[in-house]
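JOB MANIFEST
job_type = single_chain_structure
chain_count = 1
residues = 255
[input]
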Amino acid sequence: MAPTDLGSVTMTGISESIARLRTAQKSSRGAPAYSRFVNRPLGRPLAAIAAELGLSPSHVTLLSAACTFSAIAAVALVPPTATGSLVIAALLVLGYALDSADGQLARLTGSASLAGEWLDHCIDAAKAVSIHLAVLVSWARFLDAPPAMLLVPLGFAAVASTFFFALIAVDLLRRIHRLQHPDAPVVERTGGTSPLYALLVVPADYGLLCLLFAALWLPALFVPAYTAIAAINALLLVVGLVRWHRSLRVLSRAA
């Protein structure tokens, strides 16, 4: 779809697209609260505007990357201030909303593609690690943090990378299994859909991390909160790995 002139973008078209998107959302199973109740609604009008402008899902993915990595670069390179921290948080929130919008746009326009999904996953994998490495650099440069303290963002980067890979891998293996054994019993995905479940897994929500960067300029708040989220994510990763491994074993026995 070729980009359209801005003058052809109408509120009616955007409103119609938003209405269609409300009935074209992906499953909420396993989705944390911010992603489910905040980020998807934020991404909905962005996807509608992108559709009116004639943008492709990959265009939106690249816009998301531009916002996200600009913020990550600022974390590592710019001394934290109140205004700077708010700008960083706003860019991260916008980047995450656009990350939701690209998938919603693909469903709205029927333009999903393997190449687009691959691009989205590559950018997600890069930001999952680089945002924590940027915190490490920031602490080393602007807080003069002791070496032991730098292990926190380093460990968080390892946890985030493993979390992302495990999620992608288990989904891919389930898809392969369905293709190889179409008659095998369907094993439900792990993760609940209730609002309570969504709240319980909030610490694993990337959106919560985005909001936390508004306090980057306040080490007395940011450092302990970031450390606590890192520890909870490590615990949730262990629990998740056990559940995902168990579910794949069930699939293997069912086959």
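[summary]
The CA atoms of residues 21 and 195 lie 21 Å apart.
Residues 1-7 have pLDDT under 50 and may be disordered.
exit_status = 0
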